[in-house]
Amino acid sequence: DTAVSQTPKYLVTQMGNDKSIKCEQNLGHDTMYWYKQDSKKFLKIMFSYNNKELIINETVPNRFSPKSPDKAHLNLHINSLELGDSAVYFCASSLIKYGPGGSYNSPLHFGNGTRLTVT
Amino acid sequence: DQQVKQNSPSLSVQEGRISILNCDYTNSMFDYFLWYKKYPAEGPTFLISISSIKDKNEDGRFTVFLNKSAKHLSLHIVPSQPGDSAVYFCAATPYNTDKLIFGTGTRLQVFP
């Protein structure tokens, strides 16, 4: 009953290939994200989707294309993989809540990451 | 441009003592701050948060302090336990967005 699950856990591939990472959450959250943790351990947001709609796109190359078929899934497709794409990719989800001060997101729930190695 | 900084890459503390992890930020638009804990081969797990309208939030052994004038926050763990050994990430979010900006983490080791 994993809350945020992503597959595969490890992905080794050659430069130039196209690959996908899948993410699913069963928390009933309405917002999903992709984060990238590079070799220097920086954890940076790439995309966020709210109810299947793209909200954040952080100057990520066009080779990266997120796809959200429904609000429980956010997949990441990467075309023409490059050496610099090697990193750990984390999927996450949250829920928008509404209070007296406006809307805010609940803390993010992360998946266990996909370690992508491009050779 | 690193907006959230954790200047100590590692910290070693004896079991039972207090662990203090520090975090500095530069963006005055940040209004919500969080600490995440990460074990190897797992994703970060939410630990505790604090809104900019407060200067302290406590949850069991964990307390987060916020000093807005110094743009500094800290996480206190007392008493520290071996199971607390992990990497701790500080994160902040600007007002009215859901974009989390993370620090680079501090590896805490609690030894017996």
Round the Cα radius of gyration of chain B to an integer and report it. 13 Å
Count of discrete alpha- or pi-helical segments spanning 4 or more residues of chain A: 0
Distance N to C terminus of chain B: 38 Å
The residue ranges of chain A in which pLDDT falls below 50 over 5 or more consecutive positions are none
Mean pLDDT of chain B: 94
Q: So how many helices of chain B?
A: 0
Q: What form of chain A results from the Cα inertia axes?
A: elongated
Average pLDDT confidence of chain A is 90
Find the count of extended strands of chain B (DSSP E, 2+ residues).
11
Structural class label of chain B: mainly beta
Distance between the termini of chain A: 34 Å
Major pleated sheet of chain A? 7 strands, mixed
Percentage of residues in helical conformation of chain A: under 10%
H/E series of chain B, N to C? EEEEEEEEEEE
State the share of residues found in helices of chain B, binned by percent: under 10%
Low-confidence stretches of chain B: none
Q: Which structural class is indicated by helix and strand composition of chain A? A: mainly beta
Which percent range describes the beta-strand content of chain B? over 45%
Task: Give a verbal description of the structure.
- The complex is a heterodimer of chains A (119) and B (112).
- Chain A is mostly beta strands and 119 residues long.
- Helices cover 0% and strands 60% of the residues of chain A.
- Chain A has no helices and 13 strands.
- Chain A has strands at residues 4-7, 10-13, 19-25, 31-37, 43-50, 53-57, 64-70, 73-78, 87-94, 96-99, 102-105, 109-110, 114-118.
- In chain A, strands 2, 4, 5, 6, 9, 12 and 13 form a 7-stranded mixed sheet that branches. A 4-stranded antiparallel sheet of chain A has the order 1-3-8-7, with no helix packed on it.
- Chain A is elongated, with a radius of gyration of 14 Å.
- With 112 residues, chain B is mainly beta.
- Chain B is 0% helix and 56% strand.
- Chain B has strands spanning 4-5, 10-14, 19-25, 30-38, 45-51, 56-59, 62-67, 72-77, 86-94, 101-102, 106-111.
- In chain B, the strands form 2 sheets. In chain B, strands 2, 4, 5, 9, 10 and 11 form a 6-stranded mixed sheet that branches.
- Chain B starts with a strand and ends with a strand.
- The model of chain B has no long low-confidence stretch (mean pLDDT 94).
- Chain A binds chain B through residues 4, 31, 40-45, 48, 55-56, 58, 90, 92, 94, 96, 102, 104-105, 107-113, and chain B through 32, 34, 36, 41-46, 49, 89, 93, 96, 98-102, 104-105.
